[in-house]
Specification:
Blueprint lengths: L9 E7 L5 E7 L5 E4 L2 H21 L6
Antiparallel strand pairs: 1-2, 2-3
């Protein structure tokens, strides 16, 4: 299975902030990388960045011929 075919799994932990917003982390399962978030847009940005990184990596390292 190529990296492009592997699912990406995230754990999103969000908490209400006393100022009316939110705070939390997006954790990538498998690597344990955690990114802080403060808005719903931050959650989307973090996940989109990982997807773009995955896409770029799969373009740079093609699957070996069989």
């Amino acid at each position: 299975m190529s990296t492009a075919d592997q699912p990406l799994t995230f754990i999103v932990r969000l908490f209400p902030a006393t100022t009316g917003g939110l705070w939390g982390v997006v954790e990538r399962v498998g690597t344990g990388r955690k990114d802080a978030v403060h808005t719903p847009e931050d959650v989307a940005r973090v996940i989109a960045a990982v997807l773009e990184e995955q896409r770029t990596n799969s373009l740079e390292s093609p699957e070996p011929l069989r």
